[in-house]
Design a protein that fits this description.
This protein has eight helices and eight strands. By secondary structure, the chain is an alpha+beta fold. The strands form three sheets. It has a three-stranded antiparallel beta sheet. The longest helix has 19 residues.
């Protein structure tokens, strides 16, 4: 159905509220010990992550495609961005420490899981209704890449929980308690994939 008002094609009608507002409320109540009732936000966050992980699995069948991944290109992109950032900022930051640690990884080559990820996956585009049913809005294009690249993009959106609010400018971000619940849903990641996830997170942060 085409809705002229929104210039959008509706494939399924769903009445729900922005889930990130519930997360934000829960986060603030927890920070100031004002939460008097038990919430299932942590469980929902974990379930969403598990659903994303299961989706990655379903996209490639019964077994993930283990493909060689070289750090070289990714590391060079990060170094280039940091170098440009160093030139633009008005105060001096010494990135040599970062470069040293990144360059140590540059020649590494590992086999990691690849799948089709959703480029537009964003925690702020999740709706939830009164029954607790969750739907994703505008997940974006599919991209075949390391699974952790897609997870990194999603995790960065969780850091924008207070975007548009004064709290964001005083460095309020999602609490570790909620972060842990999100990561608990990605429990199938190996240690080497978690290591690579941190590198992809760095890449997303300095975009």
């Amino acid at each position: 159905t085409y809705l002229e008002k929104y210039n959008a094609v509706i494939t399924q009608s769903f009445n729900g509220n922005d889930f990130f507002l519930d997360i934000r409320k829960e986060d603030i109540l927890n920070r100031f010990n004002l939460n008097k009732s038990k919430s299932d936000i942590n469980l929902k966050l974990k379930n969403i992550s598990e659903s994303i992980s299961n989706y990655h699995q379903l996209c490639v069948g019964s077994e993930f495609n283990l493909i060689d991944f070289e750090y070289k290109i990714l590391i060079q992109k990060i170094i280039n961005k940091l170098t440009n950032l160093e030139k633009k900022i008005f105060f001096k930051i010494n990135f040599k420490y970062f470069f040293y640690n990144l360059l140590k990884l540059k020649e590494e080559k590992i086999k990691i899981r690849h799948s089709y990820t959703l480029k537009g996956l964003d925690i702020r585009n999740i709706l939830i209704n009164e029954k607790g049913l969750i739907k994703l809005l505008d997940p974006g294009k599919l991209k075949y890449e390391p699974e952790v690249a897609g997870i990194a993009r999603y995790l960065v959106t969780t850091e924008l929980l207070y975007w548009g609010k004064l709290l964001f400018f005083i460095k309020f971000s999602i609490s570790n308690n909620l972060k842990n619940s999100i990561m608990a849903g990605f429990s199938t990641l190996s240690l080497r994939e978690k290591k690579l996830l941190n590198i992809f997170l760095l890449k997303e942060y300095i975009k």
